[in-house]
Amino acid sequence: MKNPVKNEKVLLSPPHLSGNEWKFIQEAIDTNWIAPLGPHVDGFEKEMANYLGVKDAIAVSSGTAAIHLALSLLEVSSGDIVFCSTLTFVASANPILYQGAIPVFIDSEPETWNMSPSALEKAFCDAALSGKLPKAVIVVNLYGQSAKMQEILAICNRYNVPIIEDAAESLGSEYQGRKSGTLGEFGIFSFNGNKIVTTSGGGMLVSDNVEAIQKARFLATQAKDPAPYYQHSILGYNYRMSNVLAGIGRAQLQVLDERVLSKRKIFSKYYEELSELPGIQFMPELEGTLSNRWLTTFTVDSIKSGISAAEIIQAFTDKHIEARHVWKPLHLQPLFNGAKYYPHQEYKNISEKLFKTGICLPSGSNINDQEQMRVIESLKIAIRQRTEMTHPITG
Ligand SMILES: *Cc1c(COP(=O)(O)O)cnc(C)c1O
After folding, report:
1. Do 149 and 141 form a contact (C-beta atoms < 8 A)?
2. Domain coordinates of the chain in residue numbers?
3. Angle of helix 369-390 relative to helix 256-274, nearest 10 degrees?
4. Which of 296, 385, 304, 380 is nearest to 12 (CA)?
5. Segment 271-284, tens digit of pLDDT
């Protein structure tokens, strides 16, 4: 007999509406505010700034656009160097290329999977020796886990280089009591469809530097000079968020804390059920931090478990379960061929190992118990089959 539920795909991180989105969209339509500006945009920016405890925020069309604006504000231009976490989505580094600048990639460390302070230190030492420091450092908080910001800030402050905190995946997370994305000169967030809250597509740039955010507003609206006609003195962009989408964002922001709790609960259940399996190790949560657990991720030691990450993902695919490899490090991407890269320690690559052994599990805040149990059982079966193959029960 066929169980229809079995064929329904369990997705990695689908959008999860709160139910209030329609009210905000309706209001935008009723008041004819369909423009890429309007009361919902203003409201969304204020509510985000309040939630995070920063002085100002600008809503933009994507997280990528927010990073691009941050680099523009820091006057990163052709030939400049920018340090960037290597274990991340390509969007973290693409804006470096938009500016004609040169990315230098920094490895992860094992306790947070994020930027290694020791690799960063080495990169700064070399840069100082060569007489050319980076213009900015882009630090990513992977899958909701904050990087070791205290150590990273200390190094960057010593060289007087500003940090752009890529908090696209860590909205709602905390680092030593402060909201993720508020520790650098700039923080950026994404509201892409797969993120913890979404506007279908969108982003936010935040900072305590009110003047800089004011300038970002100017740059993001084609850098239109204050003149009675269309006059432009510098290069701008069309990066503002529409008032309709900002309405969706306001409704989503209202349930953000609930979503963090759901994601953490999903993680706990996976941990409870799977952490005892041979060779399985979940992404750690650094002391003094709170992760939103955007995606539950773990590594598999194929010698202990008898199965590789690629084989596990295939086993999930066969069962209509969407699991993914951990991000492929950017220094291994053909796009960044030839870019400089600093490993965690000499001959010790953390990001490459995480890529080879890491898996992201379905973690949508709207996943139900039955679906999550399907994921759990599938992994248990896949590993049991392998361990029985390598250690056959004889009797
Ligand atoms: C999603 C994401 C971005 C970019 O966000 P978009 O809104 O899709 O442009 C940037 N950095 C990281 C780490 C992300 O996961």
Report:
1. no
2. 21-255, 257-390
3. 30
4. 296
5. 999 999 999 999 99
CATH number of 257-390: 3.90.1150.10
CA 233 to ligand 1 center in whole angstroms: 30
Instruction: Report the run of H or E that residue 104 belongs to, with start and end.
Output: strand 102-106
At 236 the three-state DSSP class reads coil
Same fold, 21-255 and 257-390: no
44, 100, 306 from 61: Cα distances, Å: 13, 21, 44
Q: What is the pLDDT of residues 214-273, one digit of tens each?
A: 999 999 999 999 999 999 999 999 999 999 999 999 999 999 999 999 999 999 999 999
User: What crossing angle do the helices spanning 243-254 and 39-52 adopt, rounded to 10°?
Assistant: 30
Strands 102-106 and 340-342: parallel
Report whether 190 contacts 168 (CB < 8 A): yes
Please give the model's pTM, rounded to 2 decimal places. 0.95
CA distances from 258 to 24, 175, 197, 255, 366 (A): 19, 19, 11, 5, 11
Residues with CB under 6 A from ligand 1: 62-64, 88-89, 91-92, 140, 166, 168-169, 190, 192, 203
Tell me: domain 21-255, CATH 3.40.640.10, correct? yes
- Residue 4 pLDDT level (bands cut at 50, 70, 90): very low
Mutation test of ligand 1: which of 85, 89, 363 has the most ligand atoms closer than 8 Å to its C-beta?
89
What b/e sequence results for 3-33 when a residue is b if at least 16 CB atoms lie within 10 Å of its CB, and e otherwise? Answer: eeeeeeebbbbbbbebeebeebbebbeeeeb
Q: What is the 37 CA–ligand 1 centroid distance (Å)?
A: 22
Distance of CA 317 from the midpoint of ligand 1 (Å): 24
